[in-house]
């Protein structure tokens, strides 16, 4: 089980729920790691929750991603060290 902090919308107010427990799904590709959800931000800054799921086993590398409504499986995973942040 994993404990995490999760924002929850309640009517007009956004509150933070602390200590929510969840069981992460087991990776069906390797059965050794768990699939963890990753979120991102859209072009205009809106949050996109669960945009990708990635296996925690570094030897596996299974991932599933949604981009522009299309589902992608097992795209290459890069470290991001060559990434230059966008200028604003």
Low-confidence stretches: none
Helical region count?
0
Please tell me how large the radius of gyration is: 15 Å
**What portion of residues belong to β-strands?**
over 45%
What percent of the residues sit in helical stretches (DSSP H or I)? under 10%
Task: Categorize the overall geometry.
Answer: globular
Mean pLDDT, nearest integer? Answer: 80
* Class based on secondary structure composition and strand pairing: mainly beta
Quick one: biggest sheet?
Answer: 4 strands, antiparallel
* Spatial arrangement of strands, main beta sheet: 3-4-5-6
Total DSSP E strands: 6
> In whole angstroms, how far apart are the ends?
39 Å
Instruction: Return the domain count.
Output: 1
What is the element string, with H for helices and E for strands? Answer: EEEEEE
Report on the structure:
This protein is mainly beta and 88 residues long. The chain has one domain (24-88). It has no helices and 6 strands. It has strands at residues 2-10, 13-22, 35-41, 47-55, 63-67, 70-73. The protein has a 4-stranded antiparallel sheet with strand order 3-4-5-6, with no helix packed on it. A two-stranded antiparallel ribbon has the order 1-2. The mean pLDDT is 80.
